[in-house]
Amino acid sequence: MRIAVTGATGRLGSALVDALADAPFPGPGGPLAWGRREMDLDAPEGVVAMLDRERPEVVLHAAAWTDVDGCAREPELALARNGTATGLLAGACAARGIDLVMVSTNEVFDGTRTDGIGYGPDDEPAPGNPYGVSKLAGERAAAAAFAGTASGGRLGIVRTAWLFGPGEPDFPRKILAAADRAVAAGEPLPAVADEWGTPTYTHDVADAIVELLAEDAHAGIHHVVNGLFATRALWAEYIVGRFGLPVTVQHVAATTWARASVPPRWGVLAATPLPSGEPLRPWPDAMADYAAALERARRQAAGSR
To answer: Which stretches of the chain drop beneath a pLDDT of 70?
Structure first.
């Protein structure tokens, strides 16, 4: 199976490339890793030539503008990058009979529900911020492109949330840096206690998408998140406790910091079953694996100073 990954240098895209390299079905050459040169969200027309030249059977669309505050400041640019560009890619794939699996977000839901139940694929999206609006626009543009197509191409949408893993500083790395500063200053570490979500390891999401592809079960909407949910503050407490840092996490409201974007207060997704029937592991178990890599990185950074 010839598979292309857009956003291949990003946090999730690179995890997808690694996971597919270990899978037998992409062939000995592995996946096609498409970065910005191949799929530029500001000039997406160029991807059409890539589709015709490389002829993938499946495109995993992980490229996106994920700066939620940037999206709030420039909502038209967000719509262009996450909505229009995705629609163009979807139309080109649908016309050629190429399957498309696009990565989306929990922020297509506004997070106002109060029943303690995670959002499922059948819940009606209602974004509460421009990032969510732009990603939902991408979902709908892709669905319209594949609706009634006679080419045989299929669409899959994988929504996930609160991703952590190697790459640019993620929440765990930011918390560790902030905790180090708090320890040095002899101050508590403030963290948001009124936003709930599902911390999710990029490697686990990538493995789940590979499983969906392997079992030919990637069409439709999938919610792929690690088990259990937490607030940012509870997640921060786990991180500083895991690393034995002598700092107290101070639970504060999201309004403590002024932000351009308003994240969903209840950003929890209800995970959909994978073909194996096995759910993704709880996020603390995934964090335990990731913590080893973080510890090595911290030691290397300390040794270079």
So the answer is: 302-305
With contact defined as beta carbons under 8 Å apart, do 198 and 268 qualify?
yes
Residue of 168, 229, 238 whose CA lies nearest to 198: 229
Domains of the chain: 3-163+200-223 (3.40.50.720), 165-196+229-267+282-304 (3.90.25.10)
pLDDT of residue 14: 97
What Cα–Cα distance (Å) separates residue 167 from each residue in 6, 11, 53, 138?
Answer: 16, 5, 29, 24
Q: Minimal CA–CA distance to 176: which of 293, 285, 263?
A: 293
CA angle, residues 115, 116, 118, in degrees to nearest 5: 110
The H or E element containing residue 127 is: none
Nearest to 280 by CA among 201, 184, 212: 201
How far apart are the C-alpha atoms of 2 and 55, rounded to whole Å?
8
Catalytic residue positions, numbered: 131
User: Which of 83-94 are b and which e, b meaning 16 or more Cβ less than 10 Å from the residue's Cβ?
Assistant: bbbbbbbbbbbb
Q: What are phi and psi of 201, to 5 degrees?
A: -85, 130
